[in-house]
Amino acid sequence: MEKSGHISAFEPKDLLIGAMIRIPAQAIHHKIIQKLNAAGFNDLSLPHIAVLQYPGPDGVRPGMLAERAGMSKQAMNQLLRSLAGMGYLVRRDAIDGRRARVVRLTKRGNSAFTRIIEILREIEIEWSTELGPKEFAQLKKLLHRVWQSNLVKSPGGPDYFAR
Fold it and tell me: Is the CB of residue 115 less than 8 Å from the CB of residue 100?
């Protein structure tokens, strides 16, 4: 890596897997926010991705959202208050009768989340065009294999990141 932080002419074998996954994910997050803003959701910003990322926050407890995003409950609650104040979500009592609260998307929140899914489908088309359909399918197949493996099933047990 050059001193400026830009990737130079390293071979893929020389790059660390964390960066190879993180950099594209960050680019996707930036594109999602850019396109959401252009679609009229101009009050959303990059930190909100921690709440709105797949599989979405609807019906999930704030503590689980915090775990999923790798942040403190306090930081997640600040994001939830922000999104509630902008009309994207509300917090309701859980239907299981316990004192817990869950997040529910409002109509505006559902519209934004639907647009995120559309944007992700657009990004997949762009990536498939750039990489070629065969290579893109192979990338998705390998990432799915990683997703299903024990590499991403901890620390919260099976399907930790998918809840």
Answer: no
- Which residues of the chain carry a pLDDT beneath 70? 1-9, 97-98, 153-163
Q: What residues does each domain of the chain span?
A: 12-131
**b/e 85-109 (16+ beta carbons within 10 angstroms → b):** ebebbeeeeeeeeeeeebbebeebb
Give me the pLDDT at residue 97, please.
62
List the structure tokens of 4.
């400026």
Residue type, 51: V
Burial of 10 per CB tally in 10 Å (0-12, 13-18, 19+)? exposed
Q: Answer whether CATH 2.60.40.1120 is correct for domain 12-131.
A: no
Asked whether 160 and 154 are in contact (CB, 8 A), the reply is yes
